[in-house]
Q: What sequence folds into this?
């Protein structure tokens, strides 16, 4: 672990065989069950993470993806020192995450999309003042950052309004400003855009990308909105059932899974599709229907089959419009999960695959 | 950057200011919760004692070493003292643990307890003002039948004991709230602890009117030095030597509760799950 001057290769975050087991009680249903629970409760262990290995270097932007219950939030909690790991070792900025000193905490920030860090009953500017005190931010830097960040996120006129009276989007923007006031080096964002409209999501993504580029902030972002990940993160870690199912960049993920393309075909409104003909064309070119909507069908096809598929599609369907895109991230992730289920274990890490 | 030794007191002051704003922003709630709180039980005491002394013959009858006039002044003292003692609803730690609201503080470079100390400070400052107003209103209404300190020194000594005892309550409620790391429900324990503090402190009956065996036990506990003893100091029933003994007892309790608080917090954090994130 590097302990010298901060450099681009400095490891800021390392998890080695990290596991987490939560203990809880099984509650039997019904009246008899309640009585049984009252006399003797049955303790059960729930494994949330197992053998997680992860190294994140300074300046990396990492998107953590996983279905509900995959363990991504638990991993963030362990890496930030909120909960201890049950096994293995998690280190942040060179120290055991659960033993961080105030100095290390000054270099860290956490944004929780489903929990407010700011004080609910106070206007954001009051919360920011308290954060200034907590993080010992010099007055001038504080004023400059508040002005710059509120301008970037377009909430300059909302600083003195009680937090509870702000819209969800404005609130989240304030949360993000609060997290960046002390100029952190490592920022964890847990679902920062959850429930936000498109404009707010894009503004926040733009803000994060700008800060990552200008200040070299290391990000770990978890989100169910894969657009967030695509637009803000260069590295993707997919968690599945508490294990790392993939770790690499977006292109690597695309190659790793199947290198497919998504062809979105819009047909004339009300036109009857010749399903048999379409199925035959897809069979010939190795494609499959990814999804259907009114007057549109999305076809997934291997990248090498795209050249032959195009003319066949025009012959087979009353095409009105057509677009070809890299396979949407959702499809890739879905494929990783099903792959993982088929093989009975998580997929090998991308670096292991590349080295073979 | 703020010098480290000054940072914690500054943080406490700053958070006290924020807590104050949070507390007084809803006027009706503030009046009901902070001003009217603690007036019902003394009123009930007054009626019960009135009936007791009347059935015993009234006039200057002495029950357990107390005349009815003294009891009236004791009840007046209770009205004021109760305003000063930190109440368990002043800490919402158990809710914050259950709902995962502690999480945000765990990644900040401060001890969460520092912010709670700020809350205690604002509570105390505001309640001192309210208690002063309640005392003045009572004195304005009933004059010398109200509790009037035998000397300014006695009043100051009483205030010191009440505030030390109030901090003991604050630590006790912190510890009970922190049991939320282990238990699903702690509010029943909080209610029970409030009842115990109140009873052993003399919130229902002056401790010196209780059986001697109980008096001996309760005098070793902090609630007695928080409720009964300060009122008796103001009334002139206790003296400076008692005040000194009270300071020693309370200091020992503060030490013990602080050690317990640290232990429970450290052990509890290892079990924290950060719910709701």
A:
């Amino acid at each position: 672990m590097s302990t010298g001057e901060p450099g681009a290769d400095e490891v800021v975050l390392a998890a080695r065989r990290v596991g987490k087991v939560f203990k809880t009680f099984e509650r039997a249903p019904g009246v008899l069950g309640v009585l049984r629970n009252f006399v003797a409760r049955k303790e059960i262990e729930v494994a949330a993470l197992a053998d997680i290995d992860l190294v994140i270097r300074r300046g990396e932007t990492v998107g953590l993806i996983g279905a509900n219950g995959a363990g991504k939030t638990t991993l963030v909690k362990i890496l930030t020192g909120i909960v201890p790991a049950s096994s293995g070792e998690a280190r942040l900025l060179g120290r055991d995450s659960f033993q961080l000193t105030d100095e290390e905490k000054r270099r860290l920030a956490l944004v929780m999309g489903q929990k407010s860090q700011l004080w609910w009953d106070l206007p954001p500017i009051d919360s920011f003042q308290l954060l200034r005190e907590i993080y010992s931010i010099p007055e001038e830097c504080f004023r400059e950052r508040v002005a710059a960040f509120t301008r970037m996120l377009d909430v300059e006129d909302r600083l003195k309004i009680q937090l509870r009276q702000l819209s969800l989007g404005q609130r989240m923007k304030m949360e993000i400003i609060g997290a960046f006031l002390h100029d952190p080096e490592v920022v964890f964002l847990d679902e920062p855009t959850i429930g936000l409209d498109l404009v707010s999501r894009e503004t926040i993504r733009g803000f994060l990308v700008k800060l990552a580029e200008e200040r070299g902030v290391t990000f770990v972002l978890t989100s169910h909105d894969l657009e967030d990940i695509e637009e803000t993160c260069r590295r993707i870690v997919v968690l599945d059932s508490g294990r790392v199912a993939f770790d690499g960049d977006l292109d690597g993920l695309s190659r790793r899974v199947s290198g497919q393309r998504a062809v979105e075909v819009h047909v004339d409104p009300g036109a009857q599709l010749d399903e048999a003909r379409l199925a035959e064309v897809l069979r010939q070119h190795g494609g499959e229907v990814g999804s259907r909507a009114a007057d549109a069908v999305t076809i997934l096809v291997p990248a090498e089959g795209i050249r032959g598929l195009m003319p066949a599609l025009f012959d087979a369907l009353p095409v009105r419009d057509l677009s070809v895109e890299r396979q949407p991230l959702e499809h890739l992730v879905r494929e990783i999960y099903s792959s993982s289920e088929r093989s009975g274990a998580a997929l090998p890490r991308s670096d292991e695959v590349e080295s073979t | 950057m703020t010098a480290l030794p000054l940072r914690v007191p500054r943080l406490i002051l700053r958070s006290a200011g924020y807590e104050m704003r949070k507390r007084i922003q809803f006027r009706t709630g503030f009046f009901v919760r902070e001003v009217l709180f603690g007036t019902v039980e003394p009123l009930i005491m007054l009626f019960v004692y009135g009936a007791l002394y009347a059935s015993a013959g009234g006039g200057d009858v002495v029950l357990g070493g107390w005349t009815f006039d003294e009891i009236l002044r004791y009840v007046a003292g209770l009205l004021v003292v109760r305003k000063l003692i930190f109440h368990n609803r002043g800490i919402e730690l158990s809710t914050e643990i259950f709902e995962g609201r502690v999480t945000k503080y765990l990644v900040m470079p401060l001890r969460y307890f520092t912010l709670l100390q700020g809350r205690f400070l604002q509570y105390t400052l505001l309640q001192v003002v309210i208690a002063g107003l309640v005392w003045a209103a009572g004195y304005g209404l009933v004059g010398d039948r109200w509790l009037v300190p035998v000397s300014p020194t006695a009043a100051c000594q009483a205030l010191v004991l009440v505030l030390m005892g109030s901090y003991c309550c604050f630590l006790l409620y912190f510890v009970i709230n922190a049991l939320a790391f282990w238990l699903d429900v702690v509010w029943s324990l909080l209610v029970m602890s409030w009842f115990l503090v109140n009873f052993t402190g003399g919130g229902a009956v002056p401790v010196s009117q209780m059986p001697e065996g109980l008096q001996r036990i309760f005098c070793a506990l902090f609630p007695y030095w928080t409720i009964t003893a300060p009122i008796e100091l103001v009334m002139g029933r206790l003296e400076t030597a008692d005040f000194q003994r009270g300071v020693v007892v309370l200091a020992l309790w503060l030490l013990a509760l602080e050690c317990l608080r640290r232990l429970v917090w450290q052990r509890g954090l290892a079990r924290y799950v950060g719910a709701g994130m």
Chain B has one domain: 4-269. Chain B has a mean pLDDT of 89.
